Amino acid sequence: MRAWPHIFVQSPVMSSSLIQALVFNLRYEARDIISVELRPLSQEAGFPPAEAGSHIDLHLGNGLIRSYSLTNSGESDRYVVAVLKDRRSRGGSLYVHEQVRVGQVISISSPRNNFQLDEAASQNVLLAGGIGITPLYAMLKRLRELGRRTHLIYCARSRSDAAFVEDIQALVAASHDGALSVHFHFDDEKGAAPDLVRLFSNFSAETHFYCCGPGPMLEAYEKACDKLGYAHVHMERFAAAPELTDQVTDSAGYTVALKKSGKTVQVPPGTKLLDALLSAGCKVEFSCREGLCGACETRVLSGEVEHRDSILTKAERAANKSMMICVSGCRSGTLVLDA
Ligand code: FES
């Protein structure tokens, strides 16, 4: 699931594998959107491989960490992210727009992918809302490489607010076999929100659907897919779902046993598991603290998890094999984690 620009917080962060990257190019993509092209400092080593749908964390000079989806995949010599200057910015997107300059070196994380593309699916529909185009643009290019039939629906407030429009049009025009198609929906031209039920209605039951966009679009997307009975529904959130963030601590305490380190930690009522582990001196990775990025995903060996993240699917939650320790808790009194 996961497009940012995910709205991520903040230091301190535990990360085992920061990479130094050169800001190689900045490009104006649309009103208030720039792309940032990063190159490895060592061309020989290259960047770790990134799949379509992946994101990376940027460790900004003001101490903030923000996670952004990659617009490219399968290129070890560069990563490209797109950043919207958010009017409600808590410092991250403003910093990128106003302080990041070509030639600087910044620290980044390895790519993580919470929004996986099923590369075997022969028919795909991608729904992008605003800056949510970022991971979907990477997917569109990958699906083009694979020769999969793909229809992109790209919604934005106006044409001026939509990034990569010309690149997408060129990609579609180059697919002579008609495998790629695109429908643009600009609110100021159409005068109404897109009718997703109508736009989704003529696809086979095997079609895979992907959406990245603001909360209301994701809700409409889920409802439309539900109404039409589609089973292969994927999405990535910009921000944690409100119903998940309203309650991020447990009213009852519980015990966590960590198998690898041999520690046992008490999590008091009202305390987040991540904070309890950090207070106990445990070395754990985390980044967003909002259940969005996947950095803190930890294997569960036993115990019943109260999942509150925005990443795991219903099936993954039911399997109870892993949890996001930054937001999720415990229902069973005791958890055993592979940490
Ligand atoms: S730190 Fe991002 S999901 Fe937990």
Describe the structure.
The chain has helices spanning 92-98, 133-146, 165-174, 187-190, 196-200, 215-228, 242-245, 273-279, 314-319; strands at residues 19-30, 33-40, 55-59, 65-69, 79-84, 105-108, 123-129, 149-156, 180-186, 208-213, 232-237, 254-258, 264-267, 297-302, 305-306, 322-324, 329-330, 334-337. It has 339 residues and is of the alpha/beta class. The protein folds into 3 domains: 19-108, Elongation Factor Tu (Ef-tu), domain 3, CATH 2.40.30.10; 123-237, 3-Layer(aba) Sandwich (Rossmann fold), CATH 3.40.50.80; 244-337, Ubiquitin-like (UB roll) (Roll). The strands form 4 sheets. Strands 4-3-6-1-2-5 form a 6-stranded antiparallel β-sheet, with helices on one face. A 5-stranded parallel β-sheet has the order 9-8-7-10-11, with helices on both faces. A hairpin with a 5-residue loop joins strand 3 (55-59) and strand 4 (65-69). The longest helix has 14 residues, at 133-146. The radius of gyration is 20 Å and the shape is globular. It starts with 18 loop residues before the first strand and ends with a strand.
Summarize the helices and strands and which ones pair or pack:
Layout: E1 19-30, E2 33-40, E3 55-59, E4 65-69, E5 79-84, H1 92-98, E6 105-108, E7 123-129, H2 133-146, E8 149-156, H3 165-174, E9 180-186, H4 187-190, H5 196-200, E10 208-213, H6 215-228, E11 232-237, H7 242-245, E12 254-258, E13 264-267, H8 273-279, E14 297-302, E15 305-306, H9 314-319, E16 322-324, E17 329-330, E18 334-337
Parallel strand pairs: 7-8, 7-10, 8-9, 10-11, 12-18
Antiparallel strand pairs: 1-2, 1-6, 2-5, 3-4, 3-6, 12-13, 14-16, 14-18, 15-17
Bound molecules: FE2/S2 (inorganic) cluster.
